[in-house]
Amino acid sequence: MQIYLDHGATTPAHPEVIDLMASVMRSQWGNPSSLHWWGERSTMAIERARLQVASLINADPEGIIFTSGGTESDNMAIVGIARQYCTPQHMIISSVEHSAVSLPAHYLERHGWEITRLSVNRQGQVDPAELARSLRPNTVLVSIITAQNEVGTIQPIEKLGQICRHANVLFHTDAVQAIGKIPINVQVLPIDLLSLSAHKFYGTQGIGALYINPLIAPLIANERSLIPLIQGGGQERGYRSGTQAVAAIAGLGLAAELAEGELIAESRRLANLRDRLYALLADIPELVPTGMRGNDRLPHHLSFYHQHIDGRRLVREMNFAGIAISSGSACSSGKSEPSSILLEMGYSPIESRNSIRLTLGKSNNETDIDWTAMVIHQILHRLA
Questions:
Q1: How far apart are CA 123 and CA 132, in angstroms?
Q2: What value does the CA radius of gyration of the chain take, rounded to a whole number of Å?
Q3: Which cofactors does this protein require (predicted)?
Q4: How many other C-beta atoms lie within 10 A of the C-beta of residue 123?
Q5: How distant, in Å, are the alpha carbons of 6, 59, 61, 275, 368 from that of 331?
Q6: 113 SS3 class
Q7: Architecture category of domain 3-10+263-383 in CATH
Q8: Pairing of strands 139-143, 170-174
Q9: Distance from C-alpha of 254 to C-alpha of 236, rounded to nearest angstrom
Q10: Tens of pLDDT along the chain (384 residues)?
Q11: Could you give the CA distance from residue 74 to residue 348 in angstroms, rounded to a whole number?
Q12: Rounded to an integer, what distance in angstroms lies between the CA atom of residue 39 and that of residue 143?
């Protein structure tokens, strides 16, 4: 029996997405920048996908810019905003950001920018009051992750965004882990820039988008809301040059449409499975949950640390049993160092090294959950 519980790392592409992408590659392979019929067909596929992605977050389609994924979207938002300024300014991030945000911020810091990293509590949440205290006259951007990838904690995005809006400061959120799992409405939430990635909600790897609020131009120094990272033919309204990956974009659009249609029901189903697994593991005192619980946690996400056993060892033992889980995030699970996220949350180096993450998805059911709980009990009993 094989069970995949690492949907936070990547999700399998939906069969309908695969079929659509194959169809586009067969019949809509023209260069969308070309003016002839073949180019127009490709353009139609791209613009349909733009509408589908915009609908998922209730955005103006003009604000959807296609990228290669969440990492490029984060870099485009952070470095693209920073490049407007001739002299270094001030930027705020949280201490539990994905490396796609924390490393660009570190890059800017090496070039003279002042970076404030907001602390988090034991559950991984930022205090909005600390954000308000940290704002300065030269603060130009705040970037706070919507939902932390390692521990599943959802940040108080509405409160954080409102603080920025009142201070006339741009607000970006890395929503890669949250899109398709929880409702996000950029017409209600005070979000200026938002990153997403298709392969987290049953699209394919290598395609994503950055949402840029069309109304943010009055808040910034230049006419363009950010300076592009890639110069070239001016595709994607000049924000992201390069011939678009038409099939991948079409797949992203369909994945967004499917996610929107089933978001509420699937999130409820996954939350029930998540809580069932928590309950089945509650009698293991050495396995300690991390992150928030209930509504402030991603519905498909569980995370723990074991008091005595290295997380990487647990991942290997579960893999031998045919069950895929991870230790920390997928981008750092190959490293032997303690999780920097758990360290920032106040856990010890040993606790941070012993962390594991289980993330559920469409293919999982109660049988998977019960079998997983039984296997974890058996492995921990054997290793005790």
A1: 20
A2: 21
A3: pyridoxal 5'-phosphate
A4: 18
A5: 12, 29, 30, 26, 25
A6: coil
A7: Alpha-Beta Complex (3.90)
A8: parallel
A9: 19
A10: 899 999 999 999 999 999 999 999 999 898 888 889 888 999 999 999 999 999 999 999 999 999 999 999 999 999 999 998 999 999 999 999 999 999 999 999 999 999 999 999 999 999 999 999 999 999 999 999 999 999 999 999 999 999 999 999 999 999 999 999 999 999 999 999 999 999 999 999 999 999 999 887 544 444 446 888 888 888 898 899 898 999 999 999 999 999 999 999 999 999 999 999 999 999 999 999 999 988 999 999 999 999 999 999 999 999 999 999 999 644 544 556 889 999 999 999 999 999 999 999 999 999 999 999 999 999 999 998
A11: 29
A12: 37
Query: What would be the CATH architecture of the domain defined by 58-236?
Result: 3-Layer(aba) Sandwich (3.40)
Contacts of 299 (CB under 8 A, 6+ apart): 181, 182, 267, 268, 270, 271, 274
Domain ranges of the chain: 3-10+263-383, 58-236
- One-letter identity of residue 231: Q
Phi, psi of 46 (to 5 degrees): -65, -45
Residue 169 CA to residue 138 CA, distance in Å, equals 9
In angstroms, the CA 216 to CA 314 distance is 46
Around Cβ 337, how many Cβ atoms within 10 Å? Answer: 11
Provide the token pair at 15: 């069969």
CB atoms within 10 A of CB 322: 12
> In whole angstroms, what is the distance from residue 290 CA to residue 153 CA?
9
Q: What is the pTM of this model?
A: 0.94
Residues marked active site are found at 331
CB atoms within 10 A of CB 327: 25
Q: Which of 54, 25, 29 is nearest to 43 (CA)?
A: 29
Separation CA 292–CA 275 (nearest Å):
13
- Report the distance separating Cα 115 and Cα 105, nearest Å: 7
CA distance readout (Å), 301 to 6, 45, 129, 235, 310: 9, 33, 27, 37, 20
Residue 117 burial (CB count, 10 A): 18
Helix and strand numbers, DSSP H then E, in the chain: 11, 12
Nearest to 194 by CA among 181, 205, 182, 178: 178
| Helix ranges (DSSP H) in 226-365 | 246-281, 311-320, 340-344, 349-353
